[in-house]
């Protein structure tokens, strides 16, 4: 872990993240006023963002978890753990900590659409369009960033760094 810390520079503080989460929560509340929503949290990276967002969204809500994984880099994608909530006819929001290539998110969106939700939207804390391989866009974006590798607040480098309350960019 010490080696990882040596490679990090501050990118977003926990206070800046909190402000982004509050802004996104306000947008979601305005769009879904009087409706119940189901948050879908892709594991593992989105768990911090999902928990914080849920606490800020003052609407009836459920949450479920999904684990989607590429079999090999750039290869097929598989479901490791599927959702258990019936989302048919429900308002669904997929909560992503960061959208990078968009491959796993595009796969997940297609899988969720097959369950006939009333609506399906995507919220992301960070959007990195420079790396996009598929034409997928979030409906709610906290911050658009350049093509840089970030860790903390759920995001990792080889499974390390998820626990940091701030987000750091790795030095090149």
UniProtKB/TrEMBL annotation:
**Swiss-Prot/TrEMBL catalytic activity:** GMP + diphosphate = guanine + 5-phospho-alpha-D-ribose 1-diphosphate; IMP + diphosphate = hypoxanthine + 5-phospho-alpha-D-ribose 1-diphosphate
Asked if the keyword Membrane belongs to this entry, the reply reads no
Q: What class of enzyme is it?
A: transferase
Which Gene Ontology CC terms are recorded? Answer: cytosol
Q: Which UniProt keywords apply?
A: Cytoplasm, Glycosyltransferase, Magnesium, Metal-binding, Nucleotide-binding, Purine salvage, Transferase
Q: Which Pfam families match?
A: Pribosyltran
The pathway where this protein functions is:
Purine metabolism; IMP biosynthesis via salvage pathway; IMP from hypoxanthine: step 1/1
Domain Phosphoribosyltransferase residues, every copy: 15-157
One annotated GO biological process: purine ribonucleoside salvage
Q: Which cofactor does it need?
A: Mg(2+)
Q: Give the EC number(s) under which this enzyme is classified.
A: 2.4.2.8
Signal peptide boundaries = none
> Where is the protein situated, by its record's location annotation?
Cytoplasm
User: Molecular function (GO) terms listed?
Assistant: guanine phosphoribosyltransferase activity; hypoxanthine phosphoribosyltransferase activity; magnesium ion binding; nucleotide binding
Q: Does the keyword Chloroplast apply?
A: no
Q: What is its main location?
A: cytoplasm
Family as reported in the entry's similarity comment: Belongs to the purine/pyrimidine phosphoribosyltransferase family.
Official protein name in the record: Hypoxanthine phosphoribosyltransferase
Species of the source: Bdellovibrio bacteriovorus (strain ATCC 15356 / DSM 50701 / NCIMB 9529 / HD100)
């Amino acid at each position: 872990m010490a080696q990882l810390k040596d490679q990090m520079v501050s990118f977003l503080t926990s206070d800046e993240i909190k402000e982004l989460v509050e802004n996104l929560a306000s947008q979601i509340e305005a769009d879904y006023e009087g409706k119940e929503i189901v948050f879908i949290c892709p594991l593992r990276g989105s768990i911090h963002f999902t928990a914080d967002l849920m606490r800020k969204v003052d609407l009836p809500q459920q949450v479920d978890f999904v684990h989607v994984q590429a079999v090999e880099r750039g290869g097929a994608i598989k479901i490791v753990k599927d959702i258990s909530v019936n989302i048919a006819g429900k308002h669904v929001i997929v909560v992503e900590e960061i959208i990078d290539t968009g491959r796993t998110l595009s796969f997940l969106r297609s899988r969720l659409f097959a369950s006939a939700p009333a609506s399906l939207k995507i919220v992301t804390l960070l959007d990195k369009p420079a790396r996009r391989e598929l034409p997928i866009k979030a409906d709610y974006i906290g911050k658009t960033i350049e093509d840089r590798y970030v860790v903390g607040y759920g995001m990792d480098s080889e499974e390390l760094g998820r626990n940091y309350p701030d987000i750091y960019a790795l030095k090149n």
